[in-house]
Design a protein that fits this description.
heterodimer; A: alpha/beta; Pyruvate-ferredoxin Oxidoreductase, domain 3; three-stranded antiparallel sheet; three-stranded parallel sheet; 6 strands; B: alpha/beta; Rossmann fold; seven-stranded mixed sheet; five-stranded parallel sheet; 22 helices; 22 strands; globular
Chain lengths: 193, 605
Amino acid sequence: MVGVGGQGIILASDILGDTALAMGLDVKKTDTLGMAQRGGSVTSHLRIAPVVYAPLISPHGADILLAFEKLEAARWVNYVRPGGLVIINNHAIPPLSISLGTQKYPADKLIIESFRQRTAKTLVVEGSKETERLGDVRALNIFMLGYLSRFFPIKISDDLWKKCISERLPARIHDLNLRAFARGKEVAASVAI
Amino acid sequence: MNKVRKLLSGNEAIALGAYHAGAQVATAYPGTPSTEILEAIAEHKDIYAEWSTNEKVAMEVGLGASYAGVRTLVSMKHVGLNVAADPFMAAATTGVHGGLVVISADDPGIHSSQGEQDNRHFAKLARVPMLEPADSQEAYDFIQIAYELSEKYDTPVLFRITTRVAHSKSVVEIDESHSRPARSKRFQHDVEKYVMLPSNARTRVPNMHKRITELVEFAENTNMNRIIQGPDRLGIITGGVGYQYAREAFTDASFLKLGMIYPLPPKLLRSFTGKVKKSFVVEELDPFLEEGIKILGINVEGKQHIPRAGELNSLSVYNAAVKAGIEEETGRIVDAHAVKDLPGRPPLLCPGCPHSGAFFVLSTMGQRAKLLDAAGKSATESNLIITGDIGCYTLAAYPPLRAMDTTACMGASIGQAIGLEKAGVSGKVIAVIGDSTFMHSGITGVVDAVYNNAKITVLVLDNGTTAMTGHQDHPGTGVTAQGIVTKAVDIEKIVRGIGVNDVQVVNAFDVKAVRQAIKSALDHDELSVVIVRGDCAVKNKKRSNPRQVDTDKCNNCDVCLMIGCPAIQKKDGKLHIDINACMGDECGICSQICPKRAIVPVSGK
């Protein structure tokens, strides 16, 4: 899972890790924040299997890339295994160098093409627009989990998702986030893959 | 027995393991990737845990507690052990009473540090045993063994982790019915053991060598060192997180996994390597195991193939093995092409950061903006040299601010500034240091400046927390690691007490006042201190009336972009403020510096 600091990536990977742990699987999870508190690149490696050794995913080793931001997606192209699943939130957060005019944000076509060369399973989802409609863009991470749930190779029951989401969030935002999860799942249902 | 499975980080597992082993005192100074150890253990209110002033003090407090007979945990990042090296070496000489475990959290790949160093060398230097877990379960299990070793062999135990073990979460099986062993707290007077006069220290040294000899016997038999039997074509010797990468890179090999890194077990190594056709050492950073094994006369390969700098991963280990002719290129893993020339996303000072205003002011002084190129280079000396320190504010070295010329280690800004001034640079010299770093090791620098009449300015950026490592309290905040309200140490009183006459305190969010204070300090040819005070925005969490750009007034001069605030962006040639990121009235720095007064509150247009 990749994106920009503040998008809730670490929390999303915590929740997915919780579901796998509850199903009795081995889980290793490592987050790379570097020095970023806000606004830097964030990456979370999550590995789920009967037995997991390495905490890090190697280049060419990711079954799934869940990207919350387009430029951050592009950074990780070579981590996707051929034929892997790529889900990109169609949202751009320009880094300061773009605002200062010293660099250019890569074109959508370049990003999408670089993934399509590696895998036919490259999906673009309007996560930020959908959650804005739901009333709070901060529910993006849970929306993305809902969208992912449709394609996730391990079948996780809705009850378990609900339990794991609720356990990690304060009660006052349960309703919003469960709606975001349901909406993500609903949007994914219409995707042919 | 009541066993539960939990997903814990290595740091959380260490804290829990130490607690279950009966640790009663825990000390630390925050430092990535070690910080969460003390945070986790401090939650147990039946033990004593403190944020110490710095790592040296943490080690000394830990040593005192050990002398009193209690089990003690001292944790720090790799460079922290440099700071604590003096008392650590003394601890290695005196030995302990209650078990003393010292955590060194190394940072291969330099995720959040000023350098890369392999602290396994400290074990050899100090002649103390070193353990290294490969995941959270081992962290939890090994720490309990570490306490037994410490007490049995009368030695501090070094416990080395790396970022991927410290911060990765993995499954740990915990016995929740675990009861903590009770220990008596009693200092037993023993002048010859604890007073390191030369005559006493001399008698201790043979003990240090003797215990390593005895520990070799332990290393031969401990199940922390274990063999995973596979085919005899290849034997992999490894430890720490390197083991995890090796297990995935080599699907057809035998493994000797070392959990005890120092001293090494010669018999076990000879027996393992004797049964395989080829032996290969997989370890991150220095060839520490490899050299130790080669000295035994055993033929192994390793670092001539495996990268020596940075982190490993399963692919880099596999590629090294292919290069070495140990594994055949199967096409199972091939490196792929990334998209080229992507814009970077370096970390920035946060929206609402109290440091932004001061650095914006500094970036406009001494012709820095004119002289320094995009890479921050200038052959011509500017009229203002800024020595920096360790903390969030080091980010001001990035463009657009470029308001930092040096950063070495905790507290170095002040000494470096004195050195530049005494060497006779033509312009002014400012040292910039945070509040926690000032407490850690800035004070002695100011003492030096007063004593030696250094004509420098020290800017203390006081945001009321140790921000970079995740908002830990420190002596200046008046709250302890366990949440107890205590006396706050006053920076202003300290510097006045040391003898600084020119001391000013200003509001970090009043740009005009900050500029005047710095200008006044630079204009006087004497030592001065400016304390720039404003709460960390991330800790403060308050926000109100976010700003927006009045496009009728804005003339696109882009001055606001020079603050480097992530909330201020330029989209399609127009300046725009992200209202979800902006802290509004809590900050207001951009509104103050806009020449056209075009940045206004959303609500109060």
